[in-house]
Amino acid sequence: MQRASVHVHNRAYTVFVPGGFVCITACQCVCWQQYEVVKGNFSRTFLRVGYHKIAEIPAGARNISIQETVKSRNYLALQTKTGVSIINGNWVIDRPGIFIAVGTQLIYRRPNEIRSRNGESITAPGPLTEDLHVYLIYQQPGPGVYYEYSEPLQNTHPTPEPDTPSDILPLCECSQ
């Protein structure tokens, strides 16, 4: 269990955080959510040319990272749950840059140096406001994509410990 100090209106409080994040809400209560890190690899030797779904990232996910494991002529693509293309949709390859969608800022990188061994990547701080579908536009054999994100666990507010010191703030529901 981690210990954190929080200051509200010039008063210090000690908060014990069991593996989560500490936040101060508008109601000035301390709350946290615990997150589970989800990791995955997609690799297939041969596929048909075209779009192949490799992952679904759920609403609420944070710290999203999608990365080609080796530079290739394949492309990463993103689409909302309802089918709206965000990056590299409908056979149109977008320029690298910042895209605002599903409640967050998505950063799309595609190294253009001939000597670079880094593949494409997409990162986002989150949290996502809706599910995000990740695709690979397959054009070259041997693709590899690594993805990682944090997803909130359910029922993360534990019951208070007995004999709680009076200088510890009460828990409240997070609006996140």
Compile the SSE list and pairings.
Blueprint: E1 2-8, E2 11-17, E3 23-24, E4 30-31, E5 35-43, E6 50-57, E7 62-68, E8 75-80, E9 85-87, E10 97-101, E11 104-109, E12 121-124, E13 132-138, E14 144-152
Antiparallel strand pairs: 1-2, 3-4, 5-14, 6-13, 7-12, 7-14, 8-9, 8-13, 10-11, 11-12
Question: What features would you describe in this structure?
Answer:
With 176 residues, the protein is mainly β. The strands form 4 sheets. A 6-stranded antiparallel beta sheet has the order 5-14-7-12-11-10, with no helix packed on it. A 4-stranded antiparallel beta sheet has the order 6-13-8-9, with no helix packed on it. Strands 1-2 form a two-stranded antiparallel ribbon. It has a domain at 35-152: Jelly Rolls (Sandwich). The chain has strands at residues 2-8, 11-17, 23-24, 30-31, 35-43, 50-57, 62-68, 75-80, 85-87, 97-101, 104-109, 121-124, 132-138, 144-152. The protein has no helices and 14 strands. A hairpin with a 4-residue loop joins strand 8 (75-80) and strand 9. It is globular, with a radius of gyration of 20 Å. The chain starts with a strand and ends in a 24-residue tail after the last strand.
